[in-house]
Specification:
This protein is about 35% helix and about 20% strand. By secondary structure, the chain is an alpha/beta fold. The strands form four sheets. Strands 6, 7, 8, 9, 10, 11, 14, 18, 23 and 24 form a ten-stranded parallel β-sheet that branches.
């Protein structure tokens, strides 16, 4: 099938197109330069046309989601809809059902989402949930920061062996890249402890976060993986944590990048939770200026924000000791789970009330980060779904970013607690994002950060992943009309996935099976065999399953998108 999206206002930052009236053409699921006279014309005159959205960090599939749904039936009762047309019924607000996840992203004009924390032991189940999410391509990241074998290689400084281990386990888990969560801290939780800085050693292992981050960064670059290490630093959510954050980023400053498809060597996720000054919640202040100043001076770093949405939500993270701390702070119910030899996790409900001082403070810190990073290619829009709020609030966040008037109105009219302006500098910032910058932080930027070579832009040969929004950018002042911005970005006029129209006028009109992106490193087969022979005795001794049951087989990826890295040619 051939199509022409006619007369749209196109934002395609990767190709330096910022609000030009032009046609977008695609054929057989790919962007093309020309089509025949038989092409179907879709009139999108004066409507915004962008590549489909790319969410670089969310939690949408896997064991945490299952525990969360069981643990919070009250959340599952929200957002319930009946079957409508081709769409199945939906349920859930902060932890939506798998079909609802796909539909809701599609309605916002999104086409790709990262599942940001896959325990290798439970990768099979993660892939089963990915198969149940329609209309999205999903990029899973495997957890490595507290893996026993990783800590041993890091302690010994054996980067070659660690690289072979990562290569082997990406094949085993069918994942895309390296995720690090509270390095050494989640392992310490198995002993009832935590680490509180990059130089605190993990109990028993006598290895530090600094050593683990350094080793994983070097191994990641040795392999030339398409995405850099993806790090959730130590001390999440604690006042005074910004020095740990900056220190974690600075560790890899001199690690040489070995990938032609990205610029950074480290991506920090949900930076809002890692940008606090002060010594306690009594004297907490924003540390956003320190973090953004570092990022502005260092091109080896990218980040996503983890913006607070001021909703009731469900926190879930592989940072188990933080979840226990949160449970002690808010007094709400707590679930804890240990993943043998690999990680730990926790789940706690959280109410981000706009009238609560801490919630308002966190809301403002996130917006400070957005405003403080000068280069929009270094920052991405996320809520760390569902931790800071559900992803369905992205349109609302976009409206905040585009309207300083709305932000100030919320503070001046006391819609949010005075801590929002007393303990942050948000009230003094008048910067506003334009539509092109929105396209960068939600589309082109995440694509570049992940090294994608098939999406995020309207380059011929790229996937026809397209979003059309019912708004004329030249007839609206986003600063004055934030509600119209939120409405438009929340209900796409068209969402097109691989050339298939999946949403029209905000309604799901067709279903497309999900696809899974993973990285296959070739050329290290001998090294992988050797390293697996080394780790197998401990695997057999400590894991409660047989290795034969560990691997994710091809049947778990009926629609794989494989990125191949050929080490033999390097």
């Amino acid at each position: 099938m051939e199509y022409i999206l006619k007369n749209g206002i196109v934002y395609d930052p990767a190709n330096k197109i910022a609000g030009e009236k032009k046609d977008v053409m695609f054929k057989d699921g790919k962007i093309v330069e020309n089509v025949s006279s038989d092409a179907k014309v879709i009139d999108v005159t004066d409507k915004i046309v962008m590549p489909a959205g790319i969410d670089p960090h969310a939690h949408v599939a896997g064991p945490k989601l299952v525990v969360g749904r069981l643990y919070r039936p009250e959340d599952s009762r929200k957002g319930v809809t009946g079957k409508k047309g081709v769409a199945r019924s939906e349920s859930g607000f902060s932890i939506p059902s798998c079909p609802a996840t796909g539909y809701r992203y599609s309605r916002m004009g999104y086409g790709t989402v990262t599942e940001a924390a896959v325990p290798p032991l439970e990768a099979k189940h993660t892939h089963e949930e990915i198969m149940a999410i329609p209309n999205l391509d999903i990029t899973p990241l495997a957890l490595f920061g507290n893996n026993w074998f990783v800590m041993q290689f890091a302690k010994e400084g054996k980067i070659d062996e660690l690289a072979a281990f990562i290569s082997s386990w990406l094949k085993l888990t069918k994942c895309y890249g390296v995720k690090i969560v509270n390095p050494c801290g989640s392992e310490a939780w198995g002993w009832g402890m935590n680490v509180h800085g990059i130089d605190d050693p993990a109990p028993y292992w006598d290895v530090t976060s600094r050593e683990v981050i350094t080793a994983l960064a070097k191994a990641n670059e040795k392999l030339g993986l398409p995405h850099s290490i993806h790090i959730h630093p130590n001390n999440l959510g604690h006042p005074g944590n910004y020095p740990t954050t900056i220190g974690s980023l600075d560790i890899v400053k001199d690690v040489e990048k070995n990938s032609p498809v990205r610029n950074q060597t480290v991506h920090i996720t949900h930076a809002q939770f890692h940008s606090y000054a002060g010594t306690s919640w009594r004297d907490v202040e924003s540390g956003a200026d320190y973090v953004t100043d570092y990022i502005n001076k260092n091109k080896h770093v990218t980040m996503d924000v983890g913006q607070i949405t001021l909703d009731e939500t469900t926190t879930m993270t592989a940072d188990a000791p933080f979840e226990f701390d949160l449970h002690q702070l808010n007094g709400l119910k707590w679930a804890n789970k240990d993943i043998e030899l690999e990680t730990a996790s926790g789940i706690v409900p959280c109410i981000y009330s706009p009238k609560a001082p801490v919630s308002a403070f966190q809301w403002a810190v996130g917006l400070e980060l957005f405003m403080g990073v000068k280069d929009p290619w270094q920052v991405c829009l996320t809520t760390d779904h569902p931790n800071a709020g559900p992803f369905i609030r992205y349109p609302r966040i976009i409206s905040w970013l585009m309207s300083s008037e709305r932000r100030n109105e919320m503070m001046d009219n006391k819609e949010v607690h005075p801590w929002s302006h007393r303990r942050t500098a948000l009230a003094t910032i008048d910067r506003e994002y334009d539509f092109n910058e929105i396209a960068i932080i939600t589309r082109a930027g995440p694509a570049k950060i992940y090294g994608y070579q098939d999406r995020g832009e309207f380059t011929p040969g790229y996937n026809a992943d397209i979003a059309v929004y019912d708004i004329n950018p030249f007839d609206i002042d986003p600063s004055k009309e934030p509600a119209a911005i939120e409405k438009a970005f929340g209900s796409a006029m068209y969402t097109i996935k691989d050339g298939q129209i999946v949403v029209k006028d905000g309604e799901v009109v067709s279903i497309k099976p999900s696809q899974t992106l993973w990285t296959n490193v070739k050329g290290l087969e001998a090294e992988e065999k050797s390293v697996m022979e080394r780790v197998m005795p401990d695997f057999t001794r400590y894991y409660s399953i047989k290795f034969e049951n560990y691997q994710v087989y091809d049947k778990y990826l009926p629609n794989p998108i494989e990125t191949t890295i050929n080490q033999a040619s390097k």
